[in-house]
Amino acid sequence: MPSNLSDFPSEFKGDLVTPEHPEYTKAIARWAMDAKRYAKIVAFVEDVQDMSLAIQYARSHDMEIAIKGGGHNPAGASSTEGLVIDLHRYFDYARVDPEKKIAYVGGGAIWETVDKAAIEYGLATVGGTVNHTGVGGLTLGGGYGYLSSSYGLALDNVLEATVVLADGTVVNASKTENPDLFWGIRGGGSNFGVVSEFVFQLYDQRRTVFSGMAVYDRSQLEALTKVTAEWWDNPGDKSSQIQTAAVGPDGKPVMVVAFFYNGSEAEGRMFYKKFFDIGPIDDQVKEIPYELVNALQNHVSYHGQGVYQKGVAHRKPEYETVLKVFDRVAELTAAPAAGPNPAILFEYFPLHKITAKDSEETPFRRDPVPSILVNAIWVDDTQENLRRGREMVYDLIGLIKSANLQLTVAEQAGYGNYDDEAVSKVAADKARIVFGKHYARLQQVKKKYDPDQVFHKWFPIAPAA
Ligand SMILES: Cc1cc2nc3c(=O)[nH]c(=O)nc-3n(C[C@H](O)[C@H](O)[C@H](O)COP(=O)(O)OP(=O)(O)OC[C@H]3O[C@@H](n4cnc5c(N)ncnc54)[C@H](O)[C@@H]3O)c2cc1C
Predict the structure, then answer these.
(1) Angle in degrees, 0-180, between the axes of helices 179-188 and 439-449, rounded to the nearest 10
(2) Which PROSITE patterns match (predicted)?
(3) Which atom of ligand 1 is nearest to the CA of 195?
(4) Closest ligand 1 atom, CA of 163?
(5) Whose C-alpha lies nearest to ligand 1, atom 36?
(6) Which residues contact residue 443 at a Cβ distance below 8 angstroms, ignoring those fewer than 6 apart?
(7) Closest atom of ligand 1 to CA, residue 110
(8) Ligand 1 site, CB within 6 A
(9) What is the pTM of this model?
């Protein structure tokens, strides 16, 4: 126990890190370096009782609370200048019950832990496409993945959760126990409590899949967008892809396509024949072990870069918009190497399993349009880079919006988990847009489970009056 925390409950079993601690810098670091905040206390909790004690201590000392899962939210939703409840150290586990085809997953787990544990039994669930991302934030805010075309969102596959509430009590949430809370956490994010454990549905999964990157240049964009639009109209249940417009190491803009087909190489090449017939300038797509699929993008999504990001959408793959965006990415990348550089991800996770669900089943907005993630990334941790990165992102967002005027306000706002303003002063207003028609019902749930707004770091919901 640090000497300056002599009043912290002695029953606390985990680790407490304060600014004097040698591990402090590591403890407050986040995936995006600009998401770091100087916490007074980082509490690495060991069990649910520790979570309750940390909540009660913070509340009695008037400290803001942030909950950290994988630490990937670039807006700083898992950081605070108060007390961080960090789940990753002791809650990064996945226990699989192969008979029931379910997994008990710790609230601080990363997707690598889940993917590896489940595939041992030939099983898998919908998870993030970069496997060091946290299960907690990704699931509570939505959860698109390569298996979405088969099984919907990550949050559609949560069967049950254990939640530590603002008053420190520990409850189960499922369709039969506290169903209002179960409804709220599946899309309402961290607004209701600390999820110590998720129970996920698993599915039979073949051990190898067809996946990897193929690269297309500007001259191939029209053909690529045409076959993508055809595929998007009829993607089936086994395919997904992410197309990233960025500038390659040689300074030339390219479209990098991360293909996924849940089958053999022969089946995948046949399925995507029109894409390969274009003749990509590089083709690294092959049959690989399932557990490597969500590691394919890890090398470009490493920890410790400066990042500003924002989601938006477009109605469908469409050449004119893609070309405009592609060329603008190339222009903006003329900035110095250390300065912000853009990357735009057109995320083609087929939506039919997501939009087929009753829209009232969870508060997540099931927009029928493909999501686009706009990123600005930089090396030097300066306010100037943050300012320029933000400006660059909004420049590109403006371009995409201007070409997609028929999008609704909510669709234009994009995926909540991609919003760098999720914790800014405007986030409370934006929550109404992000949660759309579900906002009023979420306010009722908030009033019941967290009337004092103890949890308010991610699109804070105001309790009903
Ligand atoms: C490299 C990268 C790849 C991504 N890929 C995908 C993708 O494929 N699909 C997709 O849908 N999204 C993706 N995302 C977005 C991702 O869903 C969000 O960044 C998400 O917030 C990450 O969750 P986390 O637990 O790592 O983050 P954190 O920063 O730890 O948490 C984010 C929010 O969730 C809350 N939270 C986390 N764990 C818990 C918990 N156990 N209980 C209560 N609240 C909790 C935090 O308090 C915070 O509000 C990606 C993001 C990055 C940076």
Answers:
(1) 120
(2) FAD_PCMH (PS51387)
(3) 42
(4) 42
(5) 137
(6) 461, 462, 463, 464
(7) 26
(8) 31, 66-73, 77-78, 87, 107, 128-130, 133-134, 136-138, 140-145, 189-190, 194-195, 301, 417, 457-458
(9) 0.97
User: Looking at the DSSP assignment, which residues form a beta bridge with residue 375?
Assistant: 309, 343
Locate 248 and state its tokens. Answer: 């390659």
Quickly list DSSP for 15-76: EEE-TTSTTHHHHH--SBGGG----SEEEE--SHHHHHHHHHHHHHTT--EEEESS---TT-
List the one residue out of 398, 287, 414 whose CA is nearest residue 347: 414
Atom of ligand 1 nearest to the CA of 30: 29
Find all residues with CB under 8 Å of 151, minimum gap 6, and list them.
125, 126, 157, 201, 203, 353
Mutation probe of ligand 1 site: the residue of 34, 67, 129 with most atoms within 8 A of C-beta: 67
- The two structure tokens encoding residue 309: 């990001």
Q: Tokens 């390659």 map to which residue?
A: 248
Across-strand partners of 212? 259
pLDDT digits (tens, 9 = 90+) for 110-136: 999 999 999 999 999 999 999 999 999
